[in-house]
Hints:
- The chain is mainly beta.
- It contains 3 helices and 24 strands.
- Strands 7, 8, 9, 10 and 11 form a 5-stranded antiparallel beta sheet that branches. The protein has a 4-stranded mixed beta sheet with strand order 5-4-1-12.
- A hairpin with a 2-residue loop joins strand 10 and strand 11.
Amino acid sequence: MIRLITGYAGTGHVTSADAGRFNAGVCGKNAYIMQTGEQLACIARSNNEIIIGSGDLVDQGRHFSIPQNSSETLTLENGSQGKSRYDAVVVRYSKDAGTGVESASMYVARGTETVKTVIPSKPEVTHGNIFNGEIIDDVVLYYIKIIDLSIEKIERAIPLIPSLSTIADVIYPVGSIYMSMNATNPAKLFGGTWEQITDYFLRPSSKSGQTGGSDHFQLSVDNLPQHSHSIPAHSHSIPDHTHTATAASAGDHVHTFSKIKDVAAGTAKYTADSYGALGASKGETSKAGGHTHKITINRKEGLVTNGGGKGNTGNTGIAQPVYTLPPYLTVYAWKRTA
Length: 338
């Protein structure tokens, strides 16, 4: 059955369970120290006494408080020479099973000693689920390490929870990056001082604040792998063809010849050099004026040249810069500086 909690009912009707559930919805179900008073600070007054300052604690929605200007004093048992241990400062929620009355208390849970060369274990406490009706739940505020007779250190065991007014400082501390599709400066949303980031991709690194890179890149010979361009062995075909040429002008000239009578054969033979022995007579052709002779070189069938060697190709390309950006979506981005 639904109930109206924050409304007038004529009689008292808001219970601690109602308030606890509401607080748990706002603060979370775990245990947190609130940023009020002295935030339940733990101070060692001596090796046997500690003081817990004012402040507020929320555990599973239940609210515990040490009022302003008040404190809680707790006593520690003595340590032992050559030994070490952890003690725990505990806030306890308890509920009387008969009456249903709920209460809070604070105590020190003593740990088990060990030789100081060994890390001691932390004391066990009772963890109960208040929402399920369990009647005891312990919250450890601090662990106190004791070596020999002295307190060595005090360790807070649960976190501080930010207030709504300071939660942005927790989410976006100085140095944080904020990105949005909205152009509103985050200073208007969260306060602080912000510097807008433009024209940079964000690159995770072991060092922040460094810049570099470019959206274009000009390739050079040093960027290319070692390589060559090959031309395979080849030949060129020559088609069927003839060559025509003209002899040079000879000028005025005659040709000399000999006439020899071959009695046996009954014929005459002409040579240029053997007429004397046979008693031949000598003659000349008629004189010719200056002239030329046109000759035609015999026709050759189609030929193929010998196979050629390897070589290199010519140059090409226009050296345009390479565009290095991947597909992207632009956003507004800021870095918090104060």
